[in-house]
Amino acid sequence: MSFEVTVKIKDDKANAFKILNKLGWKLEKHWVQTSTYWTHLDTLNVVPYRELIENSVLVRDMKGRSENCVEFMYKDKSFDKNGNVVNEQKIVCSVGEEANEILRRAGFKNWVIMKAEQNIFEKDSKSFCIQDVDGLGLFLEVEEDRGVVDDLIDFAKSLGLELGNDFVGIKLPYMLYLKNQEIK
User: What is the domain range of residue 58?
Assistant: First the structure.
């Protein structure tokens, strides 16, 4: 089980990285991640987030990581009474690049492809990720196996970045899905 907060970064990428470097944070890992989300639902006309995510799996292709890998994943999420994700448990296995084709042929529908640069910063045994998501912009993600969401929010605010106000309602794949629905 893990707890996470994700928040929009209003600074541009160069300025955000500069702020973090001044505070002693080091960029330790960088890779490009493409997450392809699939569902067995019959319709994809603006499905509510909870229904869509509970009925989805994803194939995650990570290029440039210590070794390139492709994972098949289900995210088992728990929600509070307001529909916010309060924790999640990931079920993951390694697969080949053929996984997307297998899901397509099995009748699953692709509802979004999210491509993002993942930038992991570390200092004093703490870490976080700055995600640069194609079509959405820059986001800060702080995740821990144990903890309290309020502590994660306080930590995010301590980084000196100009941040948005929503720390628990950000659902990046769903935001991209809704944006793509507007384009159609």
Answer: 3-183
pLDDT of amino acid 29: 94
What does the alpha-carbon distance between residue 101 and residue 97 come to, in Å, rounded to a whole number? 8
- Pairwise CA distance, residues 39 & 135, whole Å: 22
Dist. CA 35–CA 33, nearest whole Å: 6
Round the CA-based radius of gyration of the chain to a whole number and report it.
17
> What CATH code is carried by the domain that includes residue 164?
2.40.320.10
Phi/psi for 35 (5° steps) reads -110, 120
Task: Determine contact, residues 114/177, Cβ cutoff 8 Å.
Answer: no
Banded pLDDT at 26 (limits 50, 70, 90): very high
Using CB atoms within 10 Å of the CB of residue 7, give its burial: 0 to 12 exposed, 13 to 18 middle, 19+ buried.
Answer: buried
pTM of this prediction?
Answer: 0.88
- Asked if 11 and 162 touch (Cβ cutoff 8 Å), the reply is yes
Query: Residues near 101 by Cβ (< 8 Å), separated by ≥ 6?
Result: none
Using an 8 Å Cβ cutoff, are 23 and 156 in contact? no
- The structural domain count of the chain equals 1
